[in-house]
Design goal:
By secondary structure, this protein is an all-alpha fold. 73% of the residues lie in helices and 2% in strands.
């Protein structure tokens, strides 16, 4: 990534919106966003390592500040699950905790300096190499990342529904709810409409999850780019710092709120899938 605007604000923003991609073969249709994939994996590993170390060193006596902080997070998530999901939450709470922390970590990358990767490449390999190097390190500003997370939640929700009702019961519910009739002929007539409504309802869940998270994080990243591009000179350095700091403080609320919403909707979808009509 370029460490300073080259060719104007438009080129600066366009440069920062490019991903570091890898094609699967010559002329391949599918391309992997290597930056989103690597950052997501590293942050997921850091989150798991952090909680594993705190759990390993946990004591029953007076907890350390680090252990107390982790316990507050776990208790907060468990309370949300308990209030929403009224079943065995031994697998739901860890899932909700993983989603909340991972999405928070992914979103928080937006608070890091926008041009830090470009500055590093420029220092090591020169300005020309930096200008032709792309690296976006906010994975949730990539629709592929948010859609991947949403699809994972989608399949987990389907698995919970089938486990609670059985494959046959789950399929029967798709055909007989929400419109139900005692008359067999009417019931058969309503089946296509019920199936269509249920398919639309289920498919809308991952789409809304993915687009909500992506839209908020993409918009926040774009504002940071605009601020960095508009206040790139030395004379405007101080106003740029002030505007970036003000937006960053406000953006912290968006980061945490979007992670919380993603987690809560996941819990709600699982609870709904396990309910019997």
């Amino acid at each position: 990534m370029a460490s300073e605007p080259q060719g104007g604000l438009t080129e600066y923003i366009q440069h920062h919106l490019h991903h570091n991609t890898v094609s699967l073969g010559d002329g391949a249709f599918m391309k992997i966003h290597l930056d989103s994939l690597v950052v997501s994996f590293v942050l997921g590993a850091l989150f798991c390592l952090w909680f594993w170390l705190k759990a390993r060193k946990a004591t029953s006596g007076v907890p350390s500040k680090g252990q107390a902080f982790v316990e507050i997070i776990v208790e907060f998530v468990d309370t949300q699950v308990k209030d929403t999901f009224h079943g065995d939450r031994r697998t739901v709470t860890p899932l909700a905790l993983s989603i909340f922390m991972w999405v928070t970590f992914l979103n928080a990358m937006d608070l890091l300096p926008l041009d830090a990767p470009g500055w590093g490449v420029k220092t090591l390999a020169g300005a020309e190499t930096a200008h032709h190097t792309f690296f976006r390190w906010v994975p949730t500003a990539d629709i592929n990342t948010t859609m991947g997370l949403a699809l994972a939640v989608f399949f987990i929700v389907l698995a919970h529904g089938m486990k609670a009702k059985g494959v046959g019961g789950f399929g029967w519910e798709l055909l007989t709810a929400p419109f139900h009739a005692d008359n067999t002929v009417v019931k058969i007539i309503l089946m296509p409409f019920n199936l269509a409504l249920n398919v639309i309802e289920y498919l809308s869940k991952p789409v809304s999850l993915a687009m909500r998270l992506f839209g908020n994080m993409y918009g926040g990243e774009l504002v940071f780019m605009l601020i960095a591009g508009l206040f790139a000179g030395w004379l405007s350095f101080l106003p740029g710092v002030i505007f970036n700091t003000a937006w960053g403080i406000f953006h912290i609320l968006i980061i945490l709120l979007q992670a919380f919403i993603f987690m809560m909707l996941t819990i709600v979808y699982i609870a709904t899938a396990r309910e019997h009509h």
